[in-house]
Amino acid sequence: MAVSEKYVHGYTEREAERLYDQAATLADLLHHDTNYAEGDSVLEAGCGVGAQTVILAARSPRARITSVDISPESIAQAERLLGARAITNVSLQVADIFDLPFEDEEFDHVFVCFLLEHLEDPEGALESLKRELRPGGSITVIEGDHGSAFFNPPSNAASHAIGCLVESQARLGGDSLIGRRLFPLLTAAGFNEVAVSPRFVYADGTRPGMVEGFTRNTFTAMVVGAREKAMELGLSTPEEFDRGVSDLYRTAEEDGVFCYTFFKGTGIK
Predict the structure, then answer these.
(1) How far is CA 114 from CA 7, 40, 242, in A?
(2) What does pTM read for this prediction?
């Protein structure tokens, strides 16, 4: 199966915009405790269109970051983004994380964000990345968990639409519930001092930035992006799916509430 077919959200300009919205909205929540020192070498695995890369580079401007992705199109978009922002401490490269073109133990740190959920073998991916770390080096992994989505007003249709996304990703070999698995995955890969912390998103009418940036432009937009694949797999009718999306947008209104949990795991080689 081609790379573009395994990424449930699709490789579109709208998806790139969603990733940029997501990264900007969640930057403080997810990245406030990730900083790399001057001269540190960092491997970012699965950088995509560079949405997280620009945040990493800004927070650790004196680190040397190598960002890789299997999609040439995504790397090209990341190059344009980094160029537009005059970021110079990042090198970009097309590469498969299961067959990386680096020497073993070449990096001080590895950073992974929203990658493992799309892989058939996340355990193997972590083992491959561990080989790139020097002894004592760290790994940081951030993943979401769509099973953690709670909202008001309640809606069976909205839950169904989210379930279509979860099932579509599972049919493609991924796991959009992987956030809850970070601790056992990192432990099984042989990392030491494994620690996982939940990062809770709460959006209501008193937090318009989070409502716009996350409820509308990140989560609901992500569900919308899975519509075509859900129809292709026969998981829903268009009317049923669209009703669920409408109800998700309803949670972004003044009296609505939306909650979601990301998980951030760290470990030492």
Answers:
(1) 11, 22, 26
(2) 0.92
